[in-house]
């Protein structure tokens, strides 16, 4: 009987250890595990943003929400020295509102809106060709944060540990009290 009990305890401990290691790997493979390409085509690991408060936004140049680029740049300038960064991901998923090449998108953003925050290559944020980052954001980030991207300029706020803590739909402007208050709360 002692041998049976001993084997059961050993199995229990081994299974517990494996579950702990698996949970650690899954937790560690979140947002920071993704590497995408910058708008200039260079590898841009999201791990480079560890320790920063991040706002991830799917953007488009020919959308009714496109003027939000001004507010995005404004809050980026306001908070960047406190450890805040915005990551812009152009996407052509909604009404073909981002038809340009990466070079055209970069030119548009810098000339019209003076965008200086990091921009990435055009990706898909929904559908069968959805980028893995957006699969993660829309399916694996937790209650109240997941769900399909409904339109351009959906925003995800990420804390300094890489955890998505809030989602803002396109109608919520980047310079609204709701967004700036959430950013300030994370910067504390």
Plain-language structure description:
This protein is an alpha+beta fold and 188 residues long. The protein folds into two domains: 1-30; 34-187, 3-Layer(aba) Sandwich (Glutaredoxin), CATH 3.40.30.10. The chain has five helices and six strands. It has helices at 2-28, 68-79, 102-113, 132-139, 177-187; strands spanning 35-37, 43-45, 53-59, 84-90, 155-158, 164-168. The protein has a four-stranded mixed sheet with strand order 4-3-5-6, with helices on one face. Helix 2 (68-79) links the parallel strand 3 (53-59) and strand 4 (84-90). The termini are far apart.
The tally of structural domains comes to: 2
Major sheet, described briefly? 4 strands, mixed
* CATH level-4 homologous superfamily of the largest domain: Glutaredoxin
Report Rg.
Answer: 20 Å
Mean pLDDT: 87
Strand content is 15-25%
How would you classify the helix and strand content by structural class? alpha+beta
- Care to count the β-strands? 6
Shape summary: globular
SSE layout and pairings?
Blueprint: H1 2-28, E1 35-37, E2 43-45, E3 53-59, H2 68-79, E4 84-90, H3 102-113, H4 132-139, E5 155-158, E6 164-168, H5 177-187
Parallel strand pairs: 3-4
Antiparallel strand pairs: 1-2, 3-5, 5-6
